[in-house]
Amino acid sequence: MNIAPNDLVLEIGSGHNPKVRADVLCDKYLLNDTERGGSIVTDRPFVVGDAEALPFRDGAFDYVICTHVLEHAQDVKRFIGELERVARAGYIETPSEVGEWLYGWDYHRWLVNRVAGRLVLRRKTARGPFGRLFHELGATDVDFMALHRRYHHVFLVQHEWRGAVDYEIRDSDDAPFDLEDAAIAAGLLRGGSRPGVVSRAKSALWSRTPDAWRARAKALLTRRAASGRRRADVRDVAACPRCKGPLRWEADAAHCATDGLSFEIRDGIPILLLPDEGGAA
Ligand SMILES: [Zn+2]
User: Disulfide-capable partner of 13 in 43, 69, 236, 273 (CB 3.0 to 4.6 Å)?
Assistant: First the structure.
């Protein structure tokens, strides 16, 4: 990711595993863990918000990280418009179509591919055919996981953008490339930023490290990444999720005068969701 040392970085859908470099975290679900792999992490400035109605000021961030969220979107156009509104650059990661069919997460709504530098999205209208099969294999077989890491670019879409996100929504059942074509299939296997030997060895070691050690190492790296940079204050960047205007802050609530909305602050975490998403009053 192309992040400068002093960039202010937002991560959306940070969930149980936020990136070390994120300054501000935003997730829609504080307590509901069903669409992620573990309990939420709130070790730095954190806001509860919806990616399709982001509670941040225009241009509040230099960079927005958004991994494994876009494929959940109800309205892709609104979602991407919000990313572009709050940051001038960012990184989007999703499962690729191959990854989506292989692993098959029922709650994903979109099939995503990256074709000639552009994200191509199609609505996912069927369940993946393999159920839990490859999740089980990943959890139990280190050789399978090594293969997954070696070909991670086949299973993932990784898209860095600046200014605007190049994307299109296609209304078609057909994938944007034909894997019956041997040359195209070989190109897909070769392509992407296939990790080098050192990076593969590092991630293999990391994947064998016990969870508690991993959490400690990550906390240490996060503190190191944050040292020397000013800790972000949520009040400087947050805004009303409806009108994007400033909020008036109290100890246990934030208010938008324009919309007449009051948002709860629970244990120091502002719940900046609109009333139809279960927030505000
Ligand atoms: Zn408002």
Answer: 69
